Amino acid sequence: MQRAVSSHASTPPKGLVVGITKWAAVAVTSLLGLANIGLVASSHLSLKILGPVLAVAAVIAVVGLLTARSWGTQSVIAVGAGNLVAAFAGALAGVSGWPVGMVLSGLAIVLAAVSSPGGRRAVMS
After folding, report:
1. pTM strictly above 0.85
2. CA 25, CA 75: separation in Å to the nearest integer?
3. Taking each helix axis from N to C terminus, what angle separates 72-93 and 98-115, rounded to the nearest 10 degrees?
């Protein structure tokens, strides 16, 4: 059973919603990359190495999403998942900043999943 299309002024067109969530995913993933660059100043050697790697992965994911590559959405989700794991490890190790990483990672994953046409169908069903 399908619902009738609403002509309400508050209901945005479907293409607009996808565009907004895609740009939100780009913004959040870019923030993740910037936050990861800051890990270079960390005292932990593993964070000095992991930070720039995750930052480069975030840049690649953002470019893939912006250029509508087939791997763009999956790469943003993968970068978000990698950052989520790193934030969880940071929480266990007592590294400051892990709550921000956890929130941004979760947002990147959700926004990328919702912005993809296949993900939107899965969420709407």
Report:
1. no
2. 11
3. 160
b/e code 31-57 from CB counts within 10 Å (16+ = b): bbbebbbebeebeeeebeebbeebbeb
- How far is residue 93 from each of residues 54, 89, 120, measured CA to CA in Å? 18, 6, 36
Tokens standing for residue 66: 């912006």
In tens, the pLDDT along 96-118 reads 888 999 999 999 999 999 987 76
**Do residues 15 and 108 make contact, with C-beta atoms less than 8 angstroms apart?**
no
Q: Are 98 and 87 in contact (CB under 8 A)?
A: yes
Are the C-beta atoms of 61 and 76 separated by less than 8 Å? yes
Q: Measured between alpha carbons, how far is 40 from 37 in angstroms, rounded to an integer? A: 6
User: Could you tell me where the DSSP H helices lie in 40-97?
Assistant: 45-66, 72-93
Report residue 84 as tokens: 């989520």
> Under a CB-based contact definition with an 8 Å cutoff, are residues 26 and 40 in contact?
no
Q: What is the dihedral of CA 109, 49, 51, 57, to 10 degrees?
A: -50
